[in-house]
Every structure is written in structure tokens, then in C-alpha cells.
Amino acid sequence: MTAILEVAGLRKSFGGVTVADGIDFVLERGAMHCLIGPNGAGKSSFFRLILGEHAPDAGRILFAGDDITALRSFQRIRRGISVKFQVPGIFKALSVRQNLEVAFQHHLHGQSLSATTRAMLEFAGLEHEADLQAGVLSHGQQQWLEIAMAVGVEPQLLLLDEPTAGMSPDETRKTGEMLHDLNDRGITILAVEHDMAFVEQISRRVTVLHFGSIFAEGTIAEIIDHPGVQEIYLGTADV
Amino acid sequence: MALFQTAFAMLYQFGDAFAFLVISCAGLAVIFGMMGVINLAHGEFIMCGAYVTATVAREGLPLVVAIIAGAVVAGLVGMVIERLVIRHLYHRPLDSIIATWGISLIATQGVLIVLGSTMAGIGTPLGAVTIGGDSYSAYRLVLMVAAIALLAALYLLFYRTRFGVVARATIQKPDMARALGVDTGRMYGLTFGLGAALAGLAGGLYAPTMTMVPTMGATFIVESFVTVVVGGADIFVGAAPAAAILALIRATLTAWYGQLFGQIGLLVAVIVVIRILPGGLSAWLKRGSR
Amino acid sequence: MNTRYNDVTAVTTRREGSLWRAIGHLEGPQTIGRGPLFWGLVSLAIVAAAIYPLFADAWTVGNAAYFMVWTFMAMGLGVVWGYAGALSFGQTAFFGLAGYAYGVLTINIGTAYGFTIAAILLSILLAGLFALLIGYFMFYGRIRGVFIGIVTLSVTLVLETFMAQTAGPQWRIGEARLNGFNGMSGMPPLTIPWPGGDLALFPGRGFYYVLLGLVVACYLGLRMLLNARFGNVLVAIRENPHRAEMLGYDIRLYQTLAFGLGGALAGLSGALYTAWGQYITPSSMGLTAAALPIVWVAVGGRRDITATLLGTILVLAGFQSLTIYGSQYALVVMGSLLLLTVLAAPEGLIVAAMTGARSLWRRARR
């Protein structure tokens, strides 16, 4: 196994608030990994740093062996990182089909574009909603649409920020199956998640972030039994 | 002595530019800072203030009274317009800007139709003072003092009065302010009125130095826009230092290359500033202090 | 999911398919109007416009050509504002720059060998490059909606001030005197080389047909562009810039390019305006002039290129007929129209009418 993402000594603070305090993190290719931690632990900031939305104060980010620390967001995406945000980030005034086409058209053309669009409509279970405005979809459907948009660009690494936020248990379970399916196709997945049942469903290994640094890492069982982890969660009355 | 003379001349140029920028942008900055609306009828509120001031002054009342009358009338007009138009567009800030442009067109051309292409002005009062052999307009020195006084008054208003506290709460967290029982609609109305009154005040203060034409507001508009853009949303943190920096640029360029290059210099400054400091000076200064 | 393998076939079909695909993009998600009825109406409108000069006197025809001169700037603003979501208040800057450029070039070089056509192209190029430069500073500076309006408006007002003070004899470029506030005049009209003597297109039938051709070409070309990838991405950026960037699009580049296109189109209007009237003044870049494109595009409807075009021609015709009573009355009406549109039909009056007509049509068919 080789590492797809390597983060070394990543630091970032805003004024007095430190959101990343020397994070060292390695993600193996093909992994399905969850990132947990109490609110304010720096999970979302960590994603933004990986995506290039914030420039780190120090440290390096390597993707597939290449240093991407200085690249701009869209360049990182083109190298094979894709993201699904917590709040559904779709183009509400465009149709579902157009949303997918916009997502795929910079690397697909003509027939392969329509084939992928069709395939992703099916993947997201939105075949019948293809020509509806994306803004009228249910919350869960919007989440799936965005996952389909993020997946259809055929990333090597997919970042998911609380993919099940606001979903019903049934939708959550379906999302979990969806992610397993993607992982089987070779996409490495890194997800921020609060719902421990969901984490158990999808993840083999878990990393706990706390105050902008890595607090613990291990299998789910190890993390659940880790006394310190219980403490930081109970201490902040989260979960 | 010659050195002193040159230094004073430079200082005068700077003070004049600073006063002009502060006075002309205050109204725009208050409305933009509080409501996120760029009031493109800003120039027309200035014109309104100037016309009222000139009319009242020509009736024989003291200039100070005339200027206050100009500010009050512009403020009232502003509140009426806020009620009729702007209030319906709070959730669409870009559309409210377009609407103010419509108002600007109607006002400029309406005044042209009703009052004709020019109006008798009032002369610049107070004559000249001689300092170190050069003579300077005393009224322009008064304007410099007025600019400082204006900043001080606005500071007191926003940081030391109940209105100011409520107003700042309304900008920062409109929902929270509403939940705490603040009539946010009324706050916006008062704010727009205040901005319009400040524009009227600018018109009144500069009325004695200008030709009274319906398009006179356009003279102020580039400078006030540029100051607000460079300053960012917060008038104290941003607009005042922005005015100082821009005044320096303008005074220097004007002294060396003439008026036009002063204005081009401002424009270049604004483009460079937005390139390196998005959010303007206030966002940058606040980031430093957080 | 093995779509990658389909790429091989897609590549081979792409070459021959690109023309058809471009034509296919005449209809699409980003423009209103599709199907035989719509294109029937469009053809009818073009035919009507083409035979119109046979039934009207030369002055009226020249006047109609004058309306068409402005439509390019309006359609450009439609792209920048309606599609790319960047509200520019200063399209007149590019209009004026190109107008002056046409004057300077043709006064110095003349009309031989169809140079006026080259002058128009050069003016468009200049305006487009200037817009790219301004766009670069704005979009790469990540400035937000409102500020784009202020910066562009400031640019056009400063250009006006600059041109207004060029009255002195030292302000000349070659043979061309800039003439300050009074404006520049005496440049030749658009002249087309023709066997047996060049055709000078003074306002009238010839100029009208050239413009009609340009309007139709520009309109159809923009429809194709806006329904193709470029347009889809622009609309995506307008809807959700963050998501668009996180799909791998360099949103600053797209916005800058759209702004450059809008500037070039404004430049086309400016050069044609100067060629039409052999006259350009600084006030073409002033506050009032800058407001008018906003009125046309807002009243017509900015998010659809057809609505923008129709709205522009209708508002211009209305403006023209009101000017009989004095331009200040016409401008008051323009201001009121803008206010009314923003308050009552923010998507634009023509768009509102078009969507209304479409739903009536659907209901009638049921």
C-alpha cells in the first residue's frame, strides 16, 4: 500500500485561534477513513487546508507523492481530489442533469459525458428527477446529487464533510452502502462524521482530532475504548 | 522659511483632499457599512443638500443654518425613499443598488426639468488667510476642521449612544437584534436617513465652493466610491484611514502632475488595494487585531 | 462506470461532430426558446427586419440601425451580469475606448483597402484587452459583487474625466485631435472595398444591413456559446462559485474571460457608434450613459440573451420617441422604468412576459 495523502507538520492559526497545530497524517491509497472529534477540533479546517482554501502557516501536503501545498484549489481538484461539503453545494437553479454535466464536462466530452451523466443519475437514484431544478430536491436527494457530482469526476481521493448530516436513518444507511460501493471501485475516502453508527458502518480506521492536532488513531474498537477519547467527548458534552 | 512654506502648502493640499474624501464618503460609508447597499443616488443627495443650502443662504439666513437645513432636507428625502423603495429590496442588495441608480437618474433629470440647467450659487465665505507669504482659502481650512469634527461626531454616535449600540448590533446580527426586540426596519430607515443627511451635509459644506448644476453630485461620486472600496465596510476602521492614504496619494499627484493624475492615481490605488487586500483596509486592520 | 473507455470513440467522433454540436447549442438549458415555433418566430423577425428598409425612408432606417448599434453592448452586459453574475456598471468605458480608437485609427490611416473594417476589429481588440486587464485585477483580487459595480463605474467616470480635459492642441494622436469635452469628429464612416469604387456606409440602408447581419450573427453565436460548456460553467459559477471551484474550475479565469467578452462586445458597439455618427464625446462614458445599458438589460431580462436583445431594442425605441419631448424627460422615464422593473419584475419585463406566454401556451395545449 502506498500513501495517497501525506500531511506533515501542518499548522494554521487565525489571529489567536489555532485550527491546525502541527498535524501529521498519512492516508493509505484505497482506505476508507473517518475523522472524528468534538466541535471546534479543526476537522473542517483540516479539509480546507487539504483543499487549498486556506494556506497553511507551515507544513506540507503531499498528494499521490507530489507536493501540492502551493497549488490552488481547482488545480488540486484536477489532480484527483474531490469533495462533498456538509451543506449541499449544488447549483440550485440548474437542472439535476446540468449539475452533473457541469461537474463532469471538463474531462469528459460528447458520448462519454452523457454516458457518465446517465450512470451517475442512476447511482444517485435520480433518474426520474433528471430534468427537475436541483433546488426542489429533498435534502437527502441534494446530498446524493452532490456526492454523484463529486464522484463522477473520478477522483482518487474523496473528502466528505458530514455526508449524512440531516439525513434520515434510512438515507444514512443507503449513503453508507454508496460509499462502500465507491471504495470498492478504488476511490480512497476520508470522511468527517459525528454519527458513530455510521462511522462503524463505513470505516476501518478512525482518527480523532482535538484542538487542531491528532489525539488518537486506531480501529473503531480501539477508539471507542480509548479513555482519553471518551473524556474529550464527554468533556465538551458533544455526541 | 521656504521649507516651512512648502511643508504647509503640502499639508494644506493633503488636508483639503482628506476633508473632501471624508466629507463626501461619510454618507455612502454609513449606508454601505450598515446595510450593504451602495447608494448610487449618493451624488443626488449631495446635490439636494447643496441646492437647499444655496436657497436658504440666499434668503439671508446664516450659512451654518443653511447647511444644517440642507442636511435635514436630504435626510428626510432619504427616509422617504427608504420607505418607498429600499425597504422592499433588503433581501436583494444588488437590486437595491440598481434601484438607487434609477432614483439618481430621475433626480438629476427631474431637477434639470424643474429648476433648469443651473442655479445661482453662493460665494465662498471667509476670504483668505496668508500664511508664510502664501494665501489660502480660510473656508477650506474650516472644511478640514469640519471633516475631523464629523469623524468625531460619528464615532460618538456609533460608540457612545444607545442608537449606535443598537445600530451596530443590527449590522452584526440582524436576526439576534430582532429577537431582542429591536425594530430593525426602523433602524434601517434611520440609517438610510442618516446616510442621506450626511450626503446633504457634504453638499451643504461644498455648496459655497461649487457651481450649482443638477449633475454636481457626479463630482463627488468617484472619490467617495473609491474611499469606501479601499476602506471596506467599517467607516472608522476603514474609511478614515483610507481617506488619509488616498488624500496623500491625491495631494502628491495633484501637486506634481495636476488634478487629473490625482484622480487616476486614486483609481490605480483602488485597483491595487482590492488586488492585494480584498475586503479593504478595515478587513485587513481587523484581522491584525483579532 | 467504465466511462473512461468510451473516450476513445468520443474522440474520433468529436471532430466531425463539433459543428453539429455547436449548432445544437443554439437551443439549450441557458437560453429561453426552443422548437419550431420559436425558430419560426426568429426567422420571421429576421425576414421582417430584412424587408423593413424597403418600406421605410432612409432616415428611419438609419435610426433603426442606430438602435442595433447598442445591442452588442447590451448583450455583452447580459453575459457579464446575467450569466456570469458580475454586475458591471462601466461597460461604457469599453464602448468609449473603442469609439475613440476607431476615430484615431481611421483619421490617421484612412479608408483605403477596407481599413475601416480593420479599425473596427482593432478597436474591439483594444476594448477586449482593456476589459481583460480590469477583469484580471477584479476577479483575481476576489472582489465581491457590489465592488465590481463600483470599480467599473469608477473606471468609466475617470475615463470620461480624462477625455474631457484633452481640449488642448497638445492632446492629439497623429492627425487626430481628441478635442476634450466637445469630442472627436471627422472620422470616415465604415467603408467596404468594392469593385468599381468603395462603398462608404453612411447611416442608411447599407449600414442597416451590415448591422442586421452582425446582430443576428452575434445573437446566434452567443446562444451557442452560452449553451456550450463555457456558458454552463459561467452559470454554475454564478449559482455557487465555491462548488464550481471545487469541481476543478478556475472560476477567476472564467469570470475574467466573460468580462473580456463583454468588454469586446461593448467595444463593437462603440466602434460602430463612432462609424455611424462620425462623432464620439467623453459623455458617452459618463454617469448617465453608463446607466442606460443597465436599464436596457434589467428591463429586458438579464438572464436570457433573447430577452436582453428584445428589451434593448424596445427600450431604445421608446427612449427615442420620448426624446422628442426632451432627453431629460426620456431619462426620467428610463429611471422610473428601472425602478419599476426592480420592484415589480426583477427578472426583467420581457422574461416575465416570455415565461407568462409559455405557461399560457402550455395550458392552452392541454
Automatic annotation (TrEMBL), chain A:
Domain ABC transporter: 5-236
InterPro entries xrefs: AAA+_ATPase (IPR003593), ABC_AA/LPS_Transport (IPR051120), ABC_transporter-like_ATP-bd (IPR003439), P-loop_NTPase (IPR027417)
A GO molecular function held by the record: ATP binding
Superkingdom per UniProt: Bacteria
Pfam families reported for this sequence: ABC_tran
Transport in keyword set: yes
Tagged with keyword Nucleotide-binding: yes
Record key words, sorted: ATP-binding, Nucleotide-binding, Transport
One cellular component (GO) term of this entry: plasma membrane
Cross-referenced CDD domains: ABC_Mj1267_LivG_branched
Listed name of the protein: Branched-chain amino acid transport system ATP-binding protein
Protein's organism: Palleronia aestuarii
TrEMBL record, chain B:
Any GO molecular function: transmembrane transporter activity
Transport found in the keyword field: yes
Protein name: Branched-chain amino acid transport system permease protein
A biological-process GO annotation: amino acid transport
Annotated TM spans: 18-41, 61-86, 98-118, 138-158, 187-206, 226-248, 260-285
Organism: Palleronia aestuarii
Pfam families, alphabetized: BPD_transp_2
Topological type in the membrane: Multi-pass membrane protein
Automatic annotation (TrEMBL), chain C:
Keyword Transmembrane part of the UniProt annotation: yes
Gene Ontology CC: one annotated term: plasma membrane
Protein known as: Branched-chain amino acid transport system permease protein
Membrane topology: Multi-pass membrane protein
Molecular function GO terms recorded: branched-chain amino acid transmembrane transporter activity
Keyword Transmembrane helix: yes
Cell location: Cell membrane
Regions crossing the membrane: 37-55, 67-86, 93-111, 117-139, 146-164, 206-226, 253-273, 279-299, 306-325, 331-357
Domain of life: Bacteria
Keywords assigned: Cell membrane, Membrane, Transmembrane, Transmembrane helix
Record-linked PANTHER family: HIGH-AFFINITY BRANCHED-CHAIN AMINO ACID TRANSPORT SYSTEM PERMEASE, SLR1201 PROTEIN
